[in-house]
Design a protein that fits this description.
- The chain is mainly α.
- The chain contains five helices and no strands.
- The chain is elongated.
């Protein structure tokens, strides 16, 4: 067994730390943009402009929500690295397949348990 198989967190910590930095910067930028645009819509001249601005706001909010959720997952993965439980499914305790961790370093569940979570989640 290689050292990254014994402690997979050491292999994935740099990618997770980098993603945490990226997400924090993205959310900070989104917050700054939201604060800057909070002054009103002085330049808006008609209903089409208002509708387009509202559509952009909805998309921006959805992107910020997604980034917030991903940041929570990344921070949780970094905590699991610190406590030695990274790479083990939070539900069944079995090792998470390395291919899954390569694709999604913040994964908290094995494929089977993730499927159960997704099936149980309301749409």
């Amino acid at each position: 067994m290689t050292s990254h198989q014994t402690h997979p967190g050491s292999r994935f910590r740099p990618a997770l730390a980098q993603r945490e930095t990226e997400l924090r910067a993205l959310l900070h930028s989104a917050l700054d943009a939201n604060i800057d645009s909070a002054g009103g819509q002085e330049g808006v001249s008609d209903f089409k402009d208002i509708a387009a601005e509202q559509s952009r706001d909805v998309v921006d909010e959805a992107q910020a929500d997604h980034a917030t959720l991903e940041l929570e997952q990344v921070v949780a993965a970094l905590r699991r690295i610190d406590d030695g439980s990274y790479g083990q499914c939070l539900d069944c305790g079995e090792p998470i397949d390395e291919r899954r961790l390569i694709a999604m370093p913040a994964a908290a569940y094995c494929v089977a348990c993730q499927a159960v979570h997704e099936h149980a989640r309301p749409r």
